[in-house]
Amino acid sequence: MAGIGGSNYWEDLRKQARQLENELDLKLVSFSKLCTSYSSSRDGRRGDTSDTTPLLNNSTQDRMFDTMSVEIEQLLAKLTAVNDKMAEYTNAPGTTSINAALMHTLQRHRDILQDYTHEFHKTKGNFVAIREREDLLGSVRKDIESYKSGSGVNNRRTELFLKEHEHLRNIAMATKENMTSQRGMLKSIQSRVNTLANRFPTINNLIQRINLRKRRDSLILGAVIGVCTILLLLYAFH
């Protein structure tokens, strides 16, 4: 492999890797924004009584999610293939004298690929979790509205339940939006920081502190959402 194209072949592989990494960086930022905006748009449509508009908007966002997921998975697969070719080149005869430098470069590209893969799966998981949670809250609200319409009686217990439901939902959504805003800002710079960290090991301490904060925020958000969901279910079946 080293004899075919020599250093030009290696540089061509590096060029392909950098191009794919740049494309993935842009795609992941857009993917993160889609996840962040999904819940907000659902909140804005809850007050709309139309039966068609929410379905069309939800369908559009779901299609965007599916399309972007496929595109990112394809880019990750291409970048993986390029990294594999770079690995083959470093093991080819004739590269022994420069193998250390090649391996260092290869490892940097592998780390970037690993970071992008992790970020993609995490963002995708968050999107699915938000969609499922919003569907659950929407289902509870529909059940309440159906009960009110069927009975024709706006008794005080139902009114209190609705007020408490709205209060708990507002708390949960305010907390989520705050955490999501912080997470979105961190995600937008995480890939660039990870790239720098591969070049400057002293930045690893900063990344570790950021990751600890993100995990803490995720635990807090999960606890708040869990408590709110339990309270809603207790009210619904009380």
UniProtKB/TrEMBL annotation:
<dbReference type="GO" id="GO:0000139">
    <property type="term" value="C:Golgi membrane"/>
</dbReference>
<feature type="region of interest" description="Disordered">
    <location>
        <begin position="37"/>
        <end position="59"/>
    </location>
</feature>
<protein>
    <recommendedName>
        <fullName>Golgi SNAP receptor complex member 1</fullName>
    </recommendedName>
</protein>
<comment type="similarity">
    <text>Belongs to the GOSR1 family.</text>
</comment>
<keyword id="KW-0653">Protein transport</keyword>
<dbReference type="Pfam" id="PF12352">
    <property type="entry name" value="V-SNARE_C"/>
</dbReference>
<dbReference type="GO" id="GO:0048219">
    <property type="term" value="P:inter-Golgi cisterna vesicle-mediated transport"/>
</dbReference>
<dbReference type="GO" id="GO:0031201">
    <property type="term" value="C:SNARE complex"/>
</dbReference>
<dbReference type="GO" id="GO:0005797">
    <property type="term" value="C:Golgi medial cisterna"/>
</dbReference>
<dbReference type="InterPro" id="IPR023601">
    <property type="entry name" value="Golgi_SNAP_su1"/>
</dbReference>
<keyword id="KW-1133">Transmembrane helix</keyword>
<keyword id="KW-0813">Transport</keyword>
<keyword id="KW-0333">Golgi apparatus</keyword>
<dbReference type="GO" id="GO:0005801">
    <property type="term" value="C:cis-Golgi network"/>
</dbReference>
<dbReference type="GO" id="GO:0006888">
    <property type="term" value="P:endoplasmic reticulum to Golgi vesicle-mediated transport"/>
</dbReference>
<dbReference type="GO" id="GO:0006906">
    <property type="term" value="P:vesicle fusion"/>
</dbReference>
<keyword id="KW-0931">ER-Golgi transport</keyword>
<feature type="transmembrane region" description="Helical">
    <location>
        <begin position="219"/>
        <end position="237"/>
    </location>
</feature>
<dbReference type="GO" id="GO:0015031">
    <property type="term" value="P:protein transport"/>
</dbReference>
<dbReference type="GO" id="GO:0005484">
    <property type="term" value="F:SNAP receptor activity"/>
</dbReference>
<keyword id="KW-0675">Receptor</keyword>
<comment type="subunit">
    <text>Component of several multiprotein Golgi SNARE complexes.</text>
</comment>
<comment type="function">
    <text>Involved in transport from the ER to the Golgi apparatus as well as in intra-Golgi transport. It belongs to a super-family of proteins called t-SNAREs or soluble NSF (N-ethylmaleimide-sensitive factor) attachment protein receptor. May play a protective role against hydrogen peroxide induced cytotoxicity under glutathione depleted conditions in neuronal cells by regulating the intracellular ROS levels via inhibition of p38 MAPK (MAPK11, MAPK12, MAPK13 and MAPK14). Participates in docking and fusion stage of ER to cis-Golgi transport.</text>
</comment>
<keyword id="KW-0812">Transmembrane</keyword>
<keyword id="KW-0472">Membrane</keyword>
